[in-house]
């Protein structure tokens, strides 16, 4: 049995809460985060064994398909995802800064997981649709080549879903810019 996380993103709070309830009733999973995000969408992130998370997400998506924006299940998520989501990542130095922005909430987590698994980078922050009209972004750091490779791979992943909005890589960002971000 492997550890996994899953997420649902729904167009409405009512359907999202109902779908999240269905997920925890379907399988032995824990809710990590469940809340309304901009602009009135609802997200729920769950964790548990891979088969349980998959069954829970499948139930929610299948039952409420007409109001589902996006969903995912990640087996063996990168250990840096949750500190980046909660803004508790400690970054000592930023050599290069990578930013990737999406139209939805779910795809940014998948993109961040892929970026962290592509090259040696540190996830700085994942902003999940809060105060951004439903858009989301991630910031990563590392050596320029690693950040570029990770952003490129993450961009490919979200572009496949049609959720890619924008991205950039800044080599050696100015300290004043760094200080404004952290």
TrEMBL record:
Pfam families the record matches: BMC (PF00936)
Subcellular location: Bacterial microcompartment
Main localisation: other
Domain BMC intervals: 4-86, 96-182
SMART domains: BMC
Family matches, as InterPro entries: BMC_dom, BMC_shell, CcmK-like_sf, CcmK/CsoS1_BMC, Micro_shell_prot_PduT
Keywords annotated in UniProt: Bacterial microcompartment
Family per similarity comment: Belongs to the bacterial microcompartments protein family.
PANTHER family: BACTERIAL MICROCOMPARTMENT SHELL PROTEIN PDUJ, PROPANEDIOL UTILIZATION PROTEIN PDUA
Name the UniProt record assigns to this protein: BMC domain-containing protein
Provenance organism: Blautia faecis
């Amino acid at each position: 049995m492997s550890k996994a996380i899953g997420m649902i993103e729904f167009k409405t709070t009512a359907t999202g809460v109902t779908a999240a309830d269905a997920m925890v009733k379907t399988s032995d999973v824990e809710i990590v985060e469940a809340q309304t995000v901009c602009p009135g969408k609802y997200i729920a992130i769950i964790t548990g064994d891979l088969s349980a998370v998959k069954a829970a997400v499948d139930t929610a998506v299948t039952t409420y398909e007409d109001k589902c924006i996006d969903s995912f299940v990640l087996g063996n998520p990168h250990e840096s995802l949750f500190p980046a989501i909660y803004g508790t990542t400690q970054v000592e130095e930023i050599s290069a800064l990578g930013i990737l922005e999406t139209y939805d909430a779910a795809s940014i987590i998948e993109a961040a997981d892929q970026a962290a698994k592509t090259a040696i980078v540190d996830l700085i922050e994942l902003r999940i649709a809060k105060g951004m009209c439903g858009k989301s972004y991630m910031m990563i750091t590392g050596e320029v080549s690693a950040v570029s490779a990770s952003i490129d791979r993450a961009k490919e992943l979200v572009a496949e879903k049609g959720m890619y909005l924008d991205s950039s890589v800044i080599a050696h960002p100015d300290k004043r810019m760094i200080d404004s971000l952290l």
